[in-house]
Every structure is written in structure tokens, then in C-alpha cells.
Specification:
This protein is mainly α. It has 2 domains: 90-231 and 454-508, Serine Threonine Protein Phosphatase 5, Tetratricopeptide repeat (Alpha Horseshoe), CATH 1.25.40; 233-447, Serine Threonine Protein Phosphatase 5, Tetratricopeptide repeat (Alpha Horseshoe), CATH 1.25.40.390. It is 46% helix and 3% strand. The protein is built from 20 helices and 4 strands. A two-stranded antiparallel ribbon has the order 1-3. Helix 6 (158-178) packs antiparallel against helix 7. The radius of gyration is 26 Å and the shape is globular. The relative contact order is 0.13. Residues 1-27 have low confidence and may be disordered.
Length: 508
């Protein structure tokens, strides 16, 4: 009996020991056992700011609404002709609101907590602002509260969304002001000073975006932010996603040479740059083959001709085959670390303030802001990597920048206010060339400038081919998941019709 007990004891000890060793052997010592706020910040920022589907075909399509490029294929691309394969907006970004809460919770009691709270508020404001610009009234005050039992959030009025966004950005700014630099930030490297400046600058953009509805209090708030001075100071503060040579973080147009061959720079872009004697043309475009064959030098503005985006697709394809158009510059598909995705720049901030001065919202020198914005953008391209061998002998240098403001490029001090606003809006529009972020389209809808080509004969707008779409429709699943609030939103805003030509509050 004693022998049996002894034997069983030995067996038990062996089993326990073996299990311990088994667990030890089969545990990855390099695998994290804890999710941190920095890990979540990295993932959330990547998901928020990377292009939605990073491949050349989708990336070029994502640039068509802003009329920077023209597709030169026989089959018409709906994005080029003011329609879309899927004319619906999305609340997909709102799914990240839960992750933002976890990100904040994981930072509790750490020195990073105020900074992480600031980041969470900034991103919530970013999601709400973009969603509202896309669709109109959207959930905001009750968004991301499924864990609290709110599975059918109400739609806040667009005016209320914009106001809440402004307040969240202001609170985020104050949190960054008291915060410390933090880990996990792929945009600013955790620099709270830059984040603070961005929060202030984005408030200016939100206020100006609703210029048709702006109040005296809004103008005062705008002027107060500018006067305080905690704003972007130069290109080093640009809010942008930088691509790398890491295979998981490459430029969406990389390896897109076949796509480039059917991507023309639009006539609108080429004509504006030629009018301004602007060397960005040589960074954006290749010379037209027909014009080169006719004796024009690649370093001459006369060698470039843009493709009319409103022309019928089959005719564009024929003209492209004949070499009539300037295609997208050959540099774009060549580099894994191609042009960064610009989301908000020092230049845009300058143009926003210049417009506000011209409109009388605050005092200041609009010309100085305008020229600083243009100089900064030109300097950005002057220092942009991967361009040296692709600018056709017309590189932007400091001498060129210093002498830029002549002829049509000179600020129209002797002209009308409208003349000067047109100059500001053109330069603001050029910032977004081939960015894929769709950032300028709401500003075009607000200002009507530059005038995007529209041909009712080629437009694919199914509701009215003679007008520009004003919005995206609400996601179809809202009709089943949140029907009461969905119906209330379209009834109150759009007379019960959820259409792409319906005019949201900020444009009325």
C-alpha cells in the first residue's frame, strides 16, 4: 500500500513538473500580455489616417472629386462624373470610439493621462466633423455609447455637432497644454505642443467651414484663437501621415505605373499653374507627348496640357492614346515612401486666416498670411524627397520662391475682395493635389471656387446631372438598426428624401 501511495505521488509530481515545463516551453517570451494606451494609440491613428484601401486604383479614384486628375479610360469612372459606386457615407470611424475609451482607461494614473485624454477628444471631434460634412445631422452626443445601453443614438443637428466639435477641440487643447509627450503617436511623435497647436488650428477650420452660418460669437472665438498665437508655426507642424519603406506602410500609389499611364493631370490644375507660372506643375505632371514631338521643351510650360475631366470617357481615352495630355508625374509610382498624406498644413492655416481677414472677422495683413502660406507650400515641395530627377529641369529653389509673387501670382491688392478670395481659394485647393483625402470638396461647395467642370451630358449624378453632389447618403443599415432616428433626420433636414443633392445646414 505504501509503495502504491509513493508511486502515485511520484507520478503526480512528474505530471505537475511536466505541465509547468510545457507551459514554459510553449509561452512566447516576446509576446505582450498587456495592451497599453500607446499600442492602442498607434493602431487607432493608423486606422484613422491611412488611405481607406491603399492600392493605386482606389487611390487615383479617391482624387477625382476634387478635379486634380482625370482618368483616361474608356469606361467612365463614376467618381470623375460626380457619382460613386457606393454613394453612401459611413459611421465606421465611430467604431473606434470604444477603443478611445480603452486607450484612456489604460492611461489612468500615469503621467500620460492628460495627453491621452486630449488625443481621444481630438479624434472624436475629427470623426464627428468629417461625418457631419459628409452627411449632415449625425450622432455625436450619444455616439460610441453602446456599452451604456445606447444602441440607437440620436442624430444631433449639424449646427450642434459643429459646436460640440469646437468645444471638444478646445478641451483637448487644454489637456495637451498640461500634458507630457507620449508614446504610440505616428503623426507627431507624441509632441503635445504640436497637438495643442493643431487643436487650435482645426477650430479655425471648423468655424470657417460654417461661414454661411457664422455668428458674431463664432467670429470673436476665431479672432481670440488667432490672437492667442498657439497655432502651427511652419511646415514642421504639418499634420500628415508619412509613408515608409516598410511593406506595411507604403505609399498607396507605389507600383502603380500601369495606372499612371491612364491618369492625366486635369486641365483645371494645369491651366491654373501655367497662369501662375508655378513650378509645381513640373512636380505634378509629365509633358504631353504631342507637344514634345512638336518641339516644345519639357522645361517649358508650353509642353503641358491638362485633360478636361468633364469630357466623355471614350474621347479622353482616344486623346490619351494620341499623347495629347500631360500624365501624372512618373515619380509617383516609384517610391515606397512617396508623398505624405497631408491632412492639415501650416499653409492651409495661413489661407484660412487670410480669408477671415478679407471677410472682416479680424484685423491683420491678409497679404502676409497669403504669401506665407504659398511660400510654405512651395518650400514643402522644394524639400520633398524623391523629386530631384523628376522635375524636368524646373526645380523649386529659394530664389524662385522669393520671386514668386509676380504677374497673376501677385496678391491682388488693387483688385476686388472677390479677386483676392479667389487667389486664396485656388492656393488652398492646390494643397490637396493627389492627396486622396477629399479634404477640399466641402470647401469648394462652400465657396464655389475654383469652378469644377460640370457637363450635364457626361455627369452621372442620378438625381440631377446639372448640379454638384452636396453630400453622401446615410449608411443603408441605419434604416434597420436606427430607423426612428434616421427617419427623423432626413425628414427634418431633407423633406424625407435622403439624396446626394440635398443641401446640408452649413451650405444654406
Amino acid at each position: 500500500m505504501k509503495k502504491t501511495i509513493y508511486l502515485l505521488t511520484l507520478i503526480s509530481l512528474f505530471i505537475v513538473s511536466s505541465c509547468d515545463k510545457f507551459e514554459e516551453i510553449n509561452t512566447d517570451p516576446n509576446k505582450t500580455t498587456k495592451v497599453t494606451s500607446s499600442m492602442l494609440a498607434t493602431q487607432i491613428l493608423k486606422d484613422t489616417y491611412r488611405f481607406w484601401n491603399p492600392n493605386p486604383n482606389d487611390f487615383t479614384s479617391g482624387n477625382l472629386f476634387n478635379k486634380h486628375i482625370t482618368m483616361l479610360e474608356t469606361n467612365p469612372n463614376p467618381y470623375q462624373y460626380f457619382y460613386s459606386y457606393s454613394p453612401y457615407g459611413s459611421f465606421g470611424s465611430y467604431k473606434r470610439l470604444t477603443d478611445l475609451k480603452y486607450m484612456v482607461n489604460f492611461s489612468k494614473a500615469s503621467t500620460y493621462e492628460p495627453s491621452v485624454q486630449g488625443l481621444a477628444l481630438f479624434l472624436k471631434a475629427w470623426y464627428g466633423f468629417r461625418a457631419s460634412l459628409d452627411m449632415g445631422d449625425v450622432p455625436y452626443s450619444e455616439a460610441g455609447k453602446g456599452a451604456e445601453g445606447i444602441t440607437k443614438p440620436k442624430y444631433d443637428k449639424q449646427a450642434d455637432v459643429f459646436n460640440a466639435v469646437l468645444n471638444d477641440l478646445k478641451e483637448a487643447e487644454s489637456l495637451f497644454a498640461t500634458g507630457v509627450n507620449f508614446d504610440g503617436d505616428i503623426m507627431y511623435g507624441g509632441n503635445v505642443v504640436k497637438w495643442r497647436r493643431l487643436c487650435n488650428a482645426l477650430q479655425l477650420k471648423v468655424i470657417q467651414t460654417m461661414s454661411k452660418k457664422v455668428t458674431a460669437a463664432d467670429k470673436a472665438r476665431f479672432a481670440e484663437i488667432v490672437s492667442a498665437g498657439n497655432l502651427l508655426t511652419g511646415n514642421s507642424d504639418n499634420f500628415m501621415l508619412v509613408y515608409t519603406t516598410n511593406s506595411n506602410a507604403t505609399y498607396p500609389m507605389y507600383n502603380g505605373e500601369e495606372r499612371r499611364k491612364y491618369t492625366g493631370v486635369s486641365k483645371l490644375v494645369v491651366d491654373e499653374l501655367k497662369n501662375l507660372n508655378d513650378r509645381r506643375l513640373f512636380y505634378f505632371a509629365e509633358p504631353a507627348k504631342v507637344l514634345i514631338d512638336g518641339g516644345a521643351a519639357e522645361s517649358s510650360f508650353d509642353a503641358y496640357d491638362g485633360a478636361p475631366s468633364e469630357l466623355a470617357a471614350d474621347q479622353l481615352a482616344l486623346n490619351n492614346a494620341a499623347g495629347k495630355y500631360s500624365l501624372l508625374n512618373k515619380r509617383y509610382p516609384l517610391y515606397m515612401n512617396g508623398d505624405p498624406m497631408l491632412y492639415f498644413t501650416y499653409s492651409e492655416q495661413c489661407f484660412i486666416i487670410a480669408e477671415a481677414i478679407e471677410e472682416g472677422w479680424l484685423t491683420g495683413n491678409a497679404q502676409e498670411y497669403f504669401e506665407n502660406g504659398v511660400k510654405a507650400m512651395l518650400s514643402y515641395y522644394m524639400n520633398l524627397p524623391n523629386t530631384a530627377n523628376h522635375v524636368h529641369g524646373m526645380a523649386i529653389d529659394q530664389t524662385y520662391i522669393n520671386n514668386y509673387f509676380t504677374g497673376a501670382a501677385a496678391y491682388a491688392t488693387a483688385g476686388s475682395k472677390e479677386d483676392r478670395l479667389h487667389q486664396i481659394w485656388i492656393q488652398r485647393w492646390l494643397i490637396d493635389f493627389f492627396q486622396g483625402n477629399g479634404g477640399n470638396y466641402p470647401q469648394f461647395l462652400r465657396t464655389g471656387y475654383p469652378v469644377y467642370p460640370l457637363n450635364p451630358a457626361t455627369s452621372l449624378n442620378p438625381e440631377d446631372p446639372a448640379v454638384y453632389p452636396k453630400r453622401w447618403m446615410y449608411p443603408t443599415d441605419e434604416q434597420t438598426k436606427n430607423p426612428e432616428n434616421y427617419l427623423k433626420a432626413i425628414n427634418e433636414q431633407y423633406g424625407g428624401f435622403d439624396g446626394i443633392n440635398q443641401v446640408p445646414w452649413y451650405l444654406k
